Each structure stands twice: as structure tokens, then as C-alpha cells.
Amino acid sequence: MYNSRNIIIGLIIFAAFVTFPFYNNFGKAVTKPDPKLDTPEIQKFPENERRCVEPKEFMKAGHMQLLNGWRDSVVRYGNRIYVNDAGKEFEISLQNTCMKCHSNKKKFCDECHNYAAVKPYCWKCHIEPKEKET
Amino acid sequence: MGTLFSFFVVIILVLIAWVGVKAANLHFLFGIIIPYIAILTFIVGIIYRVVRWSRSPVPFRIPTTCGQQKSLPWIKDSKLDNPSTTLGVIGRMALEVLLFRSLFRNAKFELREGAKLVYGSAKWLWLAGLALHWSFFVIILRHFRLFTEPVLFFVPLLESIDGFLQIGVPLLFVSGIVLLLAVTYLFLRRIFIPEVRYISLASDYFPLFLIFGIASSGILMRYFFKVPVVDVKVLTMGLISFNPDPKVLEGIGILFYIHLFLICTLFAYFPFSKLVHMAGVFLSPTRNLANNNRMKRHINPWNYPVKVHTYEAYEDEFRKFMKDAGIPVEKE
Amino acid sequence: MAVKPKVPKGVPYPDELSKIDYKPPQKGWMDTLVEFKPGTYCYGATIKNIKALESPNQREWSSKDKDWKLPENWREIFLEGMEDRLRKYRSFRLFMDICVRCGACADKCHFFIGSGDPKNMPILRAELLRSVYRKYFTAGGKYLGRIAGARELTYDVLKELWYYAYQCTECRRCSAFCPYGIDTAEVTIIVRELLYNLGLITDWIAGPVVNCYRSGNHLGILPHTLKDTLDTFAADIKTITGIKVEPTINRKGAEILFVGPSGDFFADPGTFTCMGELMIFHELGLDYTWSSLASEGGNFGFFTSNEWAKRLHYKIYAEAKRLKVKWILGGECGHMWRLINQYLDTWWGPTDFLEEPVSPITGTKFENAKSTKMVHICEFTADLIRHGKLKLDPSRNDHLKVTFHDSCNTSRAMGFLEEPRYIIKNVCNNFYEMPPNTIREQTFCCGSGSGLNAGENMELRMRGGFPRANAVRYVHEKYGVNMLANICAIDRAALPALMDYWVPGVGVTGTHEMVANALVMKGEKERTIDMRGEPLLGKEAKGDV
Fold it and tell me: Strand (E) positions, C220-373?
């Protein structure tokens, strides 16, 4: 007895499971996230002075930990001043510092968060900025 | 010896990824070519192994029965441990594959003073095995967030359950910790239980080190040496749509390449090692057959005719004795 | 314990033997050469028997010699045989590939528990061959060698395979605990077959096979001797009960053919079981016959090669057909039932010349046997008791405190657990179970199965039976158990020596012997003795107590 039928069914299930991402994505045009840095606030700066609190590379991968640190700093210790690696001081505030430049939550924050399936809980406490639908 | 050998092989694998990406700048090789080779090897390899097994027939129906058979109607049969129907077999296999039924039976013995054998429950192996496999499975499912866009419904669900402790940013996933603990336990028992150490081969330690490497590089990457996850997803989505974007490769940290290379090694190694038990368990004739032998004839495809001692020859030899003893004969 | 143990010649005393060191040696197992310890292995077959068994390589040899006089191309023969079986048995190929060496089986083998020899761990027993498989049948093993767990098939390795294949009773206990169901029996069955190809058979197996092929049973009982034996049993039954039973042999047109293990013709306590069966059949007025050719349900061929097993089992259906019976009833035997359940129908079916078994007494259809057409006597008797067709007086077994030993084969290759218990509970008043880790599907082997019940390997048998005996000792000390019931002829042959050694004071009985004690027959005289001629409780001659 070979049980070929069951074995073939089994192999098909196996192949279907393993190759799922390939055919699931087949023919779908997935657009890469493209966070926009074109808010009026940012554009006020001359090109060479457009800097975030820390270098771009660091912010890209580690902004959530920085923000988490900021929250603790303010909520737990009442400290509202952040000194970056270059020695420059910033006010610790999501609304007044981050969102001042990055006022475009949808095109800036959500663009990547949705793509990477991340649900930050910033907006459980902070009020979401009202944006005009573009 | 096997332990050190396997340990150094894994270290060398890490170094290969490190040197290959950092020094030799082979991002394209490690980020695109090797993953394709690994997944192809995995799929083709598993199918090859299963087909190879399946070409040998199951000549006899030999389930290991672990409960009461189905016989008289008033005797309760054990439908899962000694199934007599296909449904029962499916149940038995499900218990075996999902909950490790047989391993749950495990017990240990001790020889006590006065030549007394005592048996005690020994469920740690079962627990660690279950923890390892299930956490690994959950982790694989979680990684679907890198392979689907829009992300499938179960991923956030799984993440919220997995992250229920709500520790740290990003949220700590329990599955990763469980995997590391289980692998560590399984490694330590290989080292400290004398019998298990005695039977262990290099190929037993290697997957443990490899999985340890994969899990720890993943955890480090998530919490400590962060890589831009959006770029990673651009890469993975590119890979699965056969249109990888080499531009993102250089922006992703070395830890990602180490993590990926170890995974590729695991996938490519999988079909040619003991890890094929994943597929093999489904084919095991002592588990996947119903104990209905006396109800339904099993066919052996190579059942060949054999020489036998026929009754005629037997009577010819003993006819006189038989007649003298009054035993009926065919030929007087 | 008041009774002194009976120690077989050459075997250390129990308190000596039970000092077991479970610590594996410092050196790895591949570096530890096999050592043939006297008392732990069987003698090689005589040239006469090797010839009769038609082994492809026949020559005089002795398992005790250094030189086994192997043919020059022994390695090729062995490896070609292996390749052939890898193609024929999915179990074999799979079990060579998927073991993860988790060690769950390691301490489940009675030979490991009794000897502490690490190569008696099922995993390692299989690994002995697996290492050869890796070397010659996998790329990893071929090129990486030792680090991949592969090794050359050397003369020493071959001897090691022989030594440990004949220290496995193929009881399948390991298989019940393995997460993938890897069955060491599948491996040792094949190793024994490969060794058969090289003429490396043991005489204790070859002898019965030769007998069985010629005379129909392992003991070589010829038809007239069978008649004499049954007559003697009938006379004994007359003495005990006053009733004359009249069994028939080779009677055509009987409804049922009865096939039992031939061990029950020959030695106590099996004989009492056979007598019990005769009494029940007589009491029921069953239309049944014995066959002088199909006078053996057991099959030592199974312990050397599949082909021999098939050759020996030909006679059962052939005789059923010739005698034109409707169905077949099988006696109390362990491996016989593994073969009937898992092999016979595949070898020699389909059995369209027989009818689906129906009990002529109760009308019960044995639907679970509708293809094989063979019913186990315990199923048959349990059904009778359930329907109140047997008048039983369990107090006649009051002199017995009984425990039940599940045979490996009926438990793990059939699931035959409740039927015998139901019978025992109905025929005796004092029944005690052994601890749960030692019964039912987790039962321990008697230590002498699969053709190891020889005389020259007594130490091995006492070691292998240690876990079983230990569990008996537990109920012996706790409840005063003095009788070990079973449903297997090898048990009845092997357990008495085991009990005398480890738990003196405990006897061994077949289940149907106890039925016979309790069976109230129509017109019988008042019973004062049991089947063994021992006085019944309360019926002792005066002054005897």
C-alpha cells in the first residue's frame, strides 16, 4: 500500500502553505511607503538645515524608543528638555516638537506604520491632529 | 566533540554573513540570491524526501496500538489511541502532531534500594518540545507581516496576544522568550542527562545552536540593534514578487543579514537532516493506520509466492501414523 | 520472602544482578567494541538447521567463536539486502531518517532497565544500524563520516548488530513512547533478516522453524503424538471433573477450526490452559476440530525472516479450507496474534472460502474479525460470560490472588486489554492490577519473547524480565498475589523461571486455566482439586492445613 493519494494531498497542502506569500502577492502592485517631508514647516528651513532631533538613520529605526524615553522623561520625571548627541536642546513634546514639523500624520507616520503593521499607542493619550483629506 | 563542532559551525555561519556583508559588501548575495536558493532547496528537498519515502510501500498494517481495540460491542474501545476508523486515525495524528500525545506518555524510572523500580512522571521533555514547536510556529506566523500587504488579519491578532505582557517598546513578544528558553532547556538536557548526552550527535546540537542564533539575533534586532523595518519589508515584498529592490539592501544593518543567513541555513539544511521529522511523522505506519486489520484486508504490493509444505506432502509423510491413530486422511 | 529464589546455572544471585549501573561509559558508543558476555546470547544454528532454513550462506559457525567464517562478500550481501528492504518497507526507510534522538525511548526498554547497557536503549539499538545506513545510503554520512553519525560496516559492527538484534524481544514498548512511533522491532526484524542471509541464525529459532515446517508445530509433535497428548488431557480432565471430553483432529465439516500455540501441548502450566479450552468447548457442545498440521499458531519464522514467517503460516487458512470449516478460533498466544492481526490476511488472504465468524452459542457476530475470520478465544469466552452461557463458580479460584500480565504483542499490536480482564474478574474473586506504568499498552515484556527463550541466555532473560518481575513483586508484597495470569504461550514457558528467580512464590497461569477451575460443568463430580491437582480452598484433606 502506497497511500499515494493522501501523500499527494499532503504535499499540496505543504507547498500551498510554504508558497503562500508568493501567490498571495501575485499580481498585486504593492506601493512602497513614501513618507513625505514636504510640510510647510519643514520647507521653511533651508535645505541644509532640515534636521530632526537625531540623525535620519537613527530616527528611522529607533524613533519609537526615543519617543518612549521622552514620555518617561516627562511623565515620570517632569523633565522636558532633551539634549541630542550634538548638544542641541529640544523641548520634549510630541505636539510641539515632533508634530510641529511633521504635521502630516497620514503621509508621514501612517505611511510606514500601516505598511509594517505597527499600531503605535501615541494617540491613545494624545489628540490626533486633524488633517485635511488630500 | 559534537557539541563544540556544531557550536563552531554556527559561529562560522555568523562570521560568513558578517564578513560577506560588512567587508565584502555582498549585500546582493546575502539579501537576495541566498534566500532564493534556500527556499527553493527547502521546498524541493522536502518534496524529494517525501516522494522517496512514498516509493517504498507499507507492506503490512502495523499500527502500535495504545488502547483498547474495537471488538465486542459492550467493550469500550479507545477511539484515539487505538483507532479503528479513518476519523479515529485523523484524531490520533492530530493529537500526535499538535499535542505530542506519545511524548506525553513519557515516564522515568529509578532503581531504588532493595532492587525496587519506581516510575515517575517526566513531562519536561514534552513541555519543552511543545513550547519549542509552538513558539516557532507562532513566530513564523508573526513574520507574515513582512510577507503580506495589506497585512493579513491574523498577524495583529497574534501580535496582541503574543505581546500581552505589554513590556517595553516595541512590545515584548512572549514567543521569542519561550523559544529561547525551550531551546536552552533542550540543549542543557542533552548536556546533563548522561544517557541523552551519550546518544547525541553533532546533528542534534547543530539545529539547537542554529535556532538559538536565529531567535537571539531576531530579538536583538527587535529591541537593541534596530534595523529599519520598512526597508526590510520592501526587501521581503520584493523577494516574494520576484522583483527585489537592491536599493534598500545597504541601509539594513548587519544583524539582519546574520539573522537571514542563519534562517537560510536552517531552511536549506532542513530536508537533509533529522528535521524532516516534520514531514515524516505524517507517514509513520505505526501511527497513521487504523487498527482494523481483521475487518479489512491490507494489500502488500510485493507479496510474492513462497514455497510451502502442503497438506498432501504432510499426509504422504505421516499417513501411516495418522491412520494408526484414527485420524482421518484424504488418501487411504 | 520466605521462599528462596531458584537461580539458573551461571546466573548471579538476584541481589547481585539487580545492582545495575546506568551510567554510560566515558568513551563514545562507536568506540566501544561489542563484548559477548556469556549468558546473554544464543548459540548459532547447527549446519543441519541452517541448511533446512535455506539460508543463502550455509556453513558451520558458532556465535562463541571469534571467526564467524563469513563469505568474502558479506558486506555486499548485507548492504544489498539493506537496499532491497529500504525499497520494500516504508517503515524501515522512514525510521532510518526521522529519529531526532530525543531520548524518550531510552529508558523504556526492559533490557536497558535490566542491564544498564546503553546499547540496549532502543534509540541506540536502532542507531547501530542507522550509522551504517548513513555511511552507505546518505550523502552526508558518506562524505562527513563520523561527525554525521556514520560508520563503516566492519566485522565488529556486524557482530554488534547480531548481538543486539538478539537482545531485542520486538515488544514495541519503545514505539508507544516515540513521538514518531519509531518501532525498534521493525529495525531488528530487518537486521535479523539480513543476518539470516549470511547464515547467522540462532539455533533456538532455527530448530522450531524446521520442526514447524515439517510437522506443523514448533515442538515437532507428529499427528499421532498430538492425538496421544489430547487423550492424556482428556484423561486428566476425567479425573478432575468426572467428565469425558472428546476432541477431534482433522475432522472435515466442523464449524470451527481451533488453532493454538503448541507450547500448550507440551509443558505445564500451558497444558492446563489447553485442558481448560477442551473443557469449555465440550461444555458448550461446540462443533470444532483441531488440525494436526495447523497445530501451531505461533511462528518462530517471524523471528528470522518475513519469508519464513509467511511459509509457516500458510497452513492455517489452507487447513481451514481443506476441512471446510466456517471460521477459525485462535488460542492464547502473543506473537501468534500479532501475526494474525497484522500479517496473516495480507500474506494468505482473501479468505472468501470462510464465513464471517458468528458465535454458535450466543449468536454474536464478531464483526471486528470479518475479513481475517479469526476470533481470539478471549473474545469468544468474554462474549459467552457476558451472555451468561457459562456457569462459573469463582470461589474455586479463591486459593489464587491473581494479577494479569499483558503480553506485548496483544497489547501493542492489537489492543487486547479488556477482554482477558473481563474474563479473569468473572472467574476469580481476588484480582489486583500491577502499577499503571507496567500494564496495558505500557506493559513490560517477559524478557524472553521473539525467540530468546533459550537456556543458554538465562542471564539476559532474567535481566530483561526484571521490570516485569519487579511489578509482580510489588503486588505480591502488597496484596499477597501468588498467581500471574497471561494469554501467551511464551509467557507460560518463560515466566515461571522468571518468577522463581525474582519473586519466588508466584505461579504462572493461562487465563483459560482459571476459567476451567471456575467452570461448573453439567454432570460433573464435586471438585476437590484444581486443574493442577492442588486442593481447592476449604476442600483440603483433613490435617493438611
Answer: 256-259, 288-290, 327-330
**Helix, strand, or coil here: B152?**
coil
Q: Are residues C193 and C234 in the same domain?
A: no
Q: H helices within B22-153, ranges in order? A: 27-28, 34-54, 86-99, 101-104, 124-142
Collect all residues of chain C within an 8 Å Cβ-Cβ radius of residue B323: none
Q: Structural domain of residue C79, as residue ranges?
A: 56-200
Contact at CB, B307 and C94, closer than 8 angstroms: no
Average pLDDT over residues C90-108: 96
Q: Which residues in chain B touch residue C227, judged by CB atoms under 8 angstroms apart?
A: 325-327
**Cα nearest neighbour of B310 on chain C:** C315
The single residue listed with the C-alpha cell 457476558 is C386
C-alpha cell at C390: 457459562
* Nearest partner of C337 among C228, C502, C489, judged by Cα: C489
User: Do residues C282 and C189 share a domain?
Assistant: no
Domains of chain B from N-terminus onward: 2-324 (1.20.950.20)
- Which pLDDT score, from 0 to 100, does residue A106 have? 87
Q: Calculate mean pLDDT across residues C500-521.
A: 97
Instruction: Look at residues A124, A36, A112 and name the one whose alpha carbon lies nearest to residue B151.
Output: A112
B161 Cβ contact partners less than 8 Å away, ≥ 6 residues apart: none
**B175 closest CA partner among B159, B157, B162:** B162
Q: How many CB atoms lie within 10 A of CB B279?
A: 23
Same-domain check for residues C244 and C180: no
Regarding whether C237 and C189 lie in a shared domain, the answer is: no
Does the beta-carbon distance from A28 to B149 stay under 8 Å? yes
Note whether C278 and C423 are same-domain residues: yes
Hey, of B233, B275, B276, which one would you mutate to test binding to chain A, going by the most A CBs within 10 A of its CB? B233
Q: What angle do CA C328, C331, C332 make, to 5 degrees?
A: 150
Cα distance between residue A88 and residue A101, in whole Å: 17
Nearest to C187, CA basis, from C199, C210, C205, C170: C170
B 269-288 residues with CB < 8 A to A: 279, 282-283
Measure the CA–CA gap between C38 and C493, rounded to whole angstroms.
22
| Same domain membership, residue C218 and residue C145 | no
Identify the sign of the CA torsion C475, C477, C482, C484: positive
Beta-strand (E) ranges in C448-510? 483-486, 507-510
Amino acid at C496: P
Q: Give domain status of residue C36, yes or no.
A: no
Alpha-carbon gap, residue C57 to C44, rounded angstroms: 14
pTM above 0.90, yes or no: yes
Task: Please say which residue of C169, C200, C231 terminates a domain.
Answer: C200
Give the total number of structural domains in chain C.
Answer: 2
> B125 near B185, Cβ under 8 Å?
no
**Residue C400, in any domain of the structure:** yes
- Pairwise CA distance, residues C532 & C269, whole Å: 8
Which CATH number covers residue C140? 1.10.1060
Look-up of cell digits 557482530: C159
In-domain check, residue C371: yes
Q: Residues A77-129: pLDDT tens digits?
A: 999 999 988 888 889 988 888 988 898 888 899 889 989 888 888 888 888 87
Q: What is the pLDDT of residue C545?
A: 42
ipTM of the complex: 0.94
Measure the CA–CA gap between C240 and C534, rounded to whole angstroms: 10
On whether the CB atoms of residues C452 and C120 are closer than 8 A, the answer is no
pLDDT digits (tens, 9 = 90+) for B115-149: 999 999 899 999 999 999 999 999 999 999 999 98
> Is C217 found in the same domain as C157?
no
Whether C315 and C464 share a structural domain: yes
C-alpha closest to that of A79 among A67, A68, A90, A92 = A92
CA distance A35 to chain B (A): 11
* Burial of C76 from C-beta contacts in 10 A (0-12 / 13-18 / 19+): exposed
